[in-house]
Amino acid sequence: ASMNIGFSQLSMLPHLADLVSYSIQKVIGFAKMIPGFRDLAADDQIVLLKSSAIEVIMLRSNQSFTLEDMTWTCGSDDFKYRISDVTQAGHNMDLLEPLVKFQVGLKKLNLHEEEHVLLMAICILSPDRPGVQDTALVESLQDRLSEILQSYIRCRHPGPGSRLLYAKMIQKLTDLRSLNEEHSRQYRCLSFQPQHSMQLTPLVLEVFGNEIS
Amino acid sequence: KKKENNALLRYLLDKDDV
């Protein structure tokens, strides 16, 4: 009964909407520190952020993801996010099953923090996002980050863990594209229902789209 | 209309992060 009540009212939606809204602000702050990002036209900066925000949040959240119990444990056990918390925010297993699989795979790469940060920057500076105008400039910035990442792995990532590591990291970016699409599909359903879209934040509505407007 | 679009994103991009 409690599950049904939780589900129908999406009891976790307000909290997760706030968490995602806060995270989007952090992604924007991070993007502004990427060399060259601020030199892009404002419209391209906006296109890149809107299309990559959810992917960077999924990447960033891997730090708190734990293989022990397949949850995002942020600090003490009071701040532990389980799959059930995300379903009670309106998402279903079509997203969560591949998302957990993605988190497990990423965790097992045991990335250095430098590699993790570079991967998020490379994810943001993807020239193939729909609506990008100056794809050549975005591509040149991404290429530079990719070269830095490959050099870092060669010089600083010793031992067996580094074998094919760059290729595995790029594969994670591909996985994120399909997670992004599934998230968008489920978000669209959610945002069509006024009783749920009213619980989202202005920034979430702006970044993920506000069907109502 | 275009200008009004993404007003929050533009603000967060332009504001000076401490």
Structure in a nutshell:
Chain A has 213 residues and is mainly alpha-helical. Chain A has helices at 2-9, 13-31, 42-60, 83-87, 93-107, 113-124, 135-156, 165-192, 194-197, 202-208; strands spanning 65-66, 71-73, 80-81.
Keywords:
heterodimer, A: 213 residues, mainly alpha, 10 helices, B: 1 helix
Major sheet of chain B: none
* Helicity of chain A, as a percent range: 55-70%
Q: What structural class do helix, strand and pairing data of chain A support?
A: mainly alpha
Contiguous helical run count of chain A? 10
Radius of gyration of chain A: 18 Å
Unreliable residue stretches of chain B: none
Strand content of chain B: under 5%
From the helix content, strand content and strand pairing of chain B, which structural class follows?
Answer: mainly alpha
Largest sheet of chain A: 3 strands, antiparallel
Task: Give an overview in words.
The complex is a heterodimer of chains A (213) and B (18). Chain A is mainly alpha-helical and 213 residues long. Chain A has helices at 2-9, 13-31, 42-60, 83-87, 93-107, 113-124, 135-156, 165-192, 194-197, 202-208; strands at 65-66, 71-73, 80-81. Chain A contains 10 helices and 3 strands. The radius of gyration of chain A is 18 Å and the shape is globular. In chain A, 31% of the residues are buried. With 18 residues, chain B is mostly helical. In chain B, 44% of the residues lie in helices and 0% in strands. Chain B has 1 helix and no strands. The relative contact order of chain B is 0.19. The mean pLDDT of chain B is 84.
Topology of this structure?
The complex is a heterodimer of chains A (213) and B (18).
Chain A lengths: L1 H8 L3 H19 L10 H19 L4 E2 L4 E3 L6 E2 L1 H5 L5 H15 L5 H12 L10 H22 L8 H28 L1 H4 L4 H7 L5
Antiparallel strand pairs in A: 1-2, 2-3
Helix pairs in contact in A: 2-3, 3-6, 3-8, 5-8, 6-7
Chain B lengths: L6 H8 L4
